[in-house]
Amino acid sequence: MSQKEYQGLLKVASEQVPFGIYAVEKQGYAELRCDKCTSITQLKTLQRQFKSQGFKVHANGR
């Protein structure tokens, strides 16, 4: 998959998760997710968990 295709896929994924994490990536590995959050605290906690494992986190907040 090219970088342009990947960016398009991220855009579509971000539209599907209005408040939460929609993707994580690390050195040539990317995973689309659908982690919907109910609070800012929950979102920040999830982001910290993924970042502590070395992932770059793509998320939508309010």
Core attributes:
alpha+beta; flat; three-stranded antiparallel sheet; 62 residues
Beta-strand content bin: 25-35%
**Radius of gyration from the CA trace?**
11 Å
Largest sheet: 3 strands, antiparallel
* Uncertain stretches: none
Mean of residue pLDDT? 93
SS field, number of helical segments = 2
Structural class assignment: alpha+beta
Shape: flat
Strand element count: 3
Helix content: 40-55%
- Order of H and E elements: HEEHE
Description:
This protein has helices at residues 3-16, 40-52; strands spanning 20-26, 29-36, 56-60. The chain is of the alpha+beta class and 62 residues long. The mean pLDDT is 93.
Quick synopsis:
This protein has helices at residues 3-16, 40-52, and strands at 20-26, 29-36, 56-60.
What are the SSEs and their pairings?
Elements: H1 3-16, E1 20-26, E2 29-36, H2 40-52, E3 56-60
Antiparallel strand pairs: 1-2, 1-3
